[in-house]
Amino acid sequence: MKKITQIICVFLTVTSMNAQQEKGIIGYTNWLSNWSEFKPHKVEYGEPNQILAGNISVNTKLLKKNVYVLQGNVYVTNNAVLTIEPGTLIIGDFQTKGTLVITKGAQLIADGLETDPIVFTSNRSMKKAGDWGGIVLLGEAPINKFGNIGSYNLDLDPTLTTYGGENASSNSGILRFVRIEFAGKNIKGTNTFNGLTIAGVGSQTILENIMVSYCGGNSFAFYGGDVNATKFVSYKSINDDYKFTQGAQCRLYNSLAVRSSYLSSNKDGSRCLEVKSYENKNETDFTKKHTFVTADNITLLNDSENITADIQSGLVKEAVYIAENASLEMKRSVVSGFNPAVIIDEKTEINDANLKKIKFEEMFFNLCTANIVTDGNRNEEDLEHWYGNILFSNVHSKSDNKETFVDIFDSKRPDFRLRLGKITASSSNR
């Protein structure tokens, strides 16, 4: 394969014990500590003593002293506000496919603490991906479907699941220090729920420190809207970690996706980042905004201890997929252990105009079979020439995970920050 970058060596000077590599997720301390959980199968949760069911049409508060079971489809309606205290446990019911839907105009205030997160999990003794539905957050911000209205149906009430509107700065509430475990139930004949669905949500909504783990569908799915997403974590989900469509305008910052060769799907259409402008072209109003995502300081990795063997076995696919008419600007991010790192849809003509809408700058590509290619073409010379320009400062390496990251194999408190002083990026052929 032709050279993507000129030989570049990155020398990092450690000025203090807390100094951090600027690429990938960042922080003077490991911001995953305290509130995250990477072994949810082994956590002993309490037994429920309260039931959540039906419609919540008045302002309601869930208390930490109680444990709630989410039975069936639970809708927050009538512009009501559902407030959840820090440390509260909500258990999705397996038999009835517990799902929480915040309808358009209503709000969810789930404002946890780093030392006392709010947890949504499964009620099965042997928990698995897809045990229950998930959380659906519906707002009034623009989408690019005709009429500016969409509906998140599956087996939900279509009269209560519309989203979209004219208010880009609308407020659907707060989700902060929240964990969502084992969601993403498959509905036969329709589709699979996401861990957290963010549809038509506006920019005043606060979305920070949210972890979705072992999801049967997509961890996070953004349908239109205009949002900021900070310190998101997707851990070993089956489908996409982050899906963007229907004209989503999203600024994703300091966030993580960890895939597993043996748990995450290796089928086409399952990636860390999937950036599309629409699901159905015939329903899309092309006079409205296309999907535009900026992703800064993101870490996307496959946590395999033998990535090369897993790639050769066909267990690993691409990390990022960009469909036609969609835009992605990705900076200071790490992509480690994929086949390849990025695929651009074959319908996207490789020209200056389109490449200016798909930017990769100051990237660190590690242990990927290729960096940035078009679908079906692993030897795209135009892309190599473009993204290989030294002005973009994109580099690559072949270091294993133990050398690349601080400590991703600590079962209790893994640290996915880039290891200091260990990066030598080379343009040698793969």
TrEMBL record:
<protein>
    <recommendedName>
        <fullName>T9SS C-terminal target domain-containing protein</fullName>
    </recommendedName>
</protein>
